[in-house]
Amino acid sequence: MSLPDVLARIEQACARAGRDPHGVRLVAVTKEHLVEEIRERVLRYGRFPLGESRIQEALPKMQELEAEWHFIGPLQRNKAKFAVRFDLIHSIDSVRLAEAVARKAQENNKIQWVLLELNLGREPQKHGFLEEELPEAMARIQALEGLRVEGLMTVAPYTEDPEAVRPLFTRLSRLADQYRLPERSMGMSGDFEVAVEEGATLVRVGRAIFEP
Question: Degrees (nearest 5) of the Cα angle 49, 22, 113?
Fold first, then answer.
């Protein structure tokens, strides 16, 4: 597969769901790939958000490539000063992390756009708020100076059948609607089409773009 193939499949999923494909953005997950690969596999086709999950790997790439950068992986509080260099952080998974990012954003005279990560699959090894924790967390985080909560994110459990995780994507969209948030970051290489059908506005795709 290639990036144009992924875009075509996004368009087809939008058609099935009666959605405008302009309402879905592809985040190209560039972790573990060299700058030359990113130019060849992604940027030759246009300007797409680039997603990284490790600060130390992302920073050198950010110096070489002019792009909209998204941080999509687990974030430690002591890396907040670097995370505020990104345009969007997908993975705010605790109030304490949100507070740390807010402090660094204020120090940089910036409003940091963030998504709150939900563990809708309730997997113990995964990061994110449980659904019942969201109301209190949302209230506390939305009150922080220096942050703007743009939406919600989830990483669905791995499955060979994307239909198995459709209910989780449906739930994330409904929660985003409930809180009147525009962004729903959900769907990866194995399940992005189902995520698009259920309302994803950001899909995080790496393997399907970079595999031979």
Answer: 45
